[in-house]
Amino acid sequence: RVDIWKHTWGMIKQSNIIALIFGHGFNSVYYNSSISLSAHTDFLEVIYDYGIIGTILYFRFYAVLVKYYVRLYKAKSELAAPMMCSLVLALILSTTSHLLIYPTYFIFLCIFWGIIAGNFERTWIMNKRRKRNG
Length: 134
Hints:
Elements: H1 2-13, H2 17-22, H3 28-32, H4 42-74, H5 80-96, H6 103-133
């Protein structure tokens, strides 16, 4: 994997300024690589495929998830631990494999995060109503 990462980083460094900003397009590491392999890490894959703009959005996505975890933790929600586990899982998959290229994994995690958010928000609203009604 390290050799693949070095090769992908070389491809990123050889990109022109427009491609660095906007990227080369979905799965371009695979299509443009002389070794015909994807980057085997979402971080390099996102930089090459989607450029700086896509990379900013990608990190913003994780930042929102971490912020939501902090909210769960501060509220002492029982959902904080599963949320943290799912974030660790997502980061491990993104670092060592592909979470974004294979949409099934990503969709399952998004569904999980949606279930956590829905349950927490519903509970939070119900508790707020109980306090208001006495």
